[in-house]
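Researcher: Please translate sequence to structure tokens.
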Amino acid sequence: MTARTLLDKLWDDHVVVRGSPGPDLLYVDLHLLHEMTSPQAFDGLRAARRGVRRPDLTIATEDHNVPTTRPLPLLDEVADPLSRLQMETVRRNCAEFGVPHHPLGSAGNGIVHVIGPEQGLSQPGLTIVCGDSHTSTHGALGALALGIGTSQVEHVLATQTLWLERPRGIEVRVDGELRPGVAAKDLALHVVRAIGPNGGAGSVLELRGDCIDRLSVEQRMTLCNMSIECGARGGLVAPDATTLDYLAGRPFAPRGETWDAAAAYWLTLRSDDGAVFDRSIAVDAADVVPTVTWGTNPSQAVAIDDTVPHPVDEAAERALAYMGLSPGTPVREIAVDTVFIGSCTNGRLEDLRAAAEVLRGRSVAPGVRALVVPGSAAVVRAAEDEDLDRVFTAAGFEWRGSGCSMCTAMNPDALGPGARSASTTNRNFEGRQGDGARTHLVSPPVAAATAVLGRLGTPADLRTS
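Model: Translation complete:
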């Protein structure tokens, strides 16, 4: 047989009807929903008098619009009328169509791309879709995970299938050891910068190499989450013993003999020797350093030791103007007034541990507002069990409930015009964190150090200041 990539295997195993030519019809194993992109899809079902084909393979949560202040409000206490309407609508739709749902305040609530893996719903070999671009996160477990549009959400609800063009495969091979103090977020920004904002268009990245093999599943999720920031459809990491250790015992993971059979199958999901990718990119892990964005897309990034670059095109000039930065400014001299730790990129327990370790015995700089928003209710509970919340609050951070929060500013946690943040989120687009807000993407340790310094910096800077 012809050697196949992991993408080839996942795709071929799910084709229901092969296009000739044109898109293929793929079976969908898991459909994730949230309150932002599902209302129109359910309205479409009603208009066509259709039901949800497989409610047992569908699950919903509330994340984008939810307030994160504690104590968490009841639905009728949510102050913003649009947010309240979005939450009311998803609850009504899920009740009517029999879709399992995790509302705000429930034990299973959280950001959709955090709760899927932590509950064991996201598994190797599955096709996973959601009306959210960062569905790519679930690829860290060896699943083909793709963000889809509203009309596609309706199609999956009605048929449990989806017409899709087969993407190209890009191998991103990362070998070597990451330097001390370098996080998965730094590696993600390094890769995005190397590929460019649209270099991965129409493709799925497979992240491989001995460096990737040593990463935790949470770190792999950060990489796959950020894969779409170079225009890719998604990211993939082949399942291995680390993946199995992560999934074992989770609520929806297989058990007993079923687990044994599943684990044996999952370990076959690797690109064959000799498999040909459409493109290959090599990264030396030793070249990766703490990285910060200076512009208005994630590829506009530099090492924290560098200076703000001189613009090479009109897009860079516009980005510098929006960010209020001058070329040649040392990155470490950029002051911030807000630090945000959270999101589907860096809101997991491992991320909070890394930030808390930097903050122990230290305090947030005067004039800096700092908040940490765990990615799920389960992360909140686990962090509080480890007293991480006390570390954050002692340092001067606000400790919040779970949600997308300041990542999307579709909730009360928005920045004002001209405000400058160091953020562990995935996008620094114009207005992403609020109208006129300026965002620098960073790793959790850099975010924590920046909060203490009041300017962009690393944990190493705290030891020398």
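Researcher: Any highlights?
Model: Residues 307 and 316 are 14 Å apart (CA to CA).
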